[in-house]
Amino acid sequence: MVANAGAFIQAHPECGAFGGIVRLDYEVEPPAWVARYAYCFAEQEHGEHHVRRDWLVGAGLVLSRAALERSGWLQKQYLSDRKGDLLLSGGDMEMVLRIRAAGYEVWYTPHCLIYHQIQTKRTTLHYLKKINFGLGASQTWCDLLVFPGSHKRFMAATLLAVTKAWLKAAKQVLRIALRNRRAEDFSVNLSFARGRLAGLNQIRRLNSAIRAEMLGCARPRISRVVLLHWAM
Fold this sequence. Notes:
Elements: H1 2-11, E1 15-26, E2 51-52, E3 62-63, H2 65-71, H3 90-101, E4 105-118, H4 125-146, H5 151-177, H6 183-204, H7 208-214
Parallel strand pairs: 1-4
Antiparallel strand pairs: 1-3, 2-4
Helix pairs in contact: 2-3, 3-4, 4-6, 5-6
């Protein structure tokens, strides 16, 4: 992994962040339905070729120190990450988005591979509900960072996205009746929808000056910079 990461850095000096394949290594093989939510555990595989990406999971992520400094993230962070039982996922995503906004490329490389160990306690329905609630809230906050329009347009667009998330959860009821899904699927999808709504309400109550500062602050800009220092 380290040797391949070093080779990728040499070949892509314009890159600000990159990640590779993340495969899950379960402590105990979970029930089959849990596999539908592998994204909750940062599973990642985008093919057999190097490709530019808009975002990457935090597991196995390699960041350029220069890119992180230029992005402003070291001076000020906006999004929370996991703290105790609060299963948010915005911290690593904010770093990637702000690095990309600073003009750096974000890449996926299949030449880097890690196995992400997943404890059995993280494959329970209780945990999946909690983490999907956090993922829903975090997605809403990340959307705020990259949204190109006004606050009113953001609220309208996000309300539509929240509605779609609730409808997706509702559809699980029909799929359960048809025996294409389990009752657990409804609970997990509902938790994500609730998280999306919670994130929207948090942003609505946010101080207007801070909200204006965050709105669109991670929109990508077109530029090219050469990196000198890396941190893993």
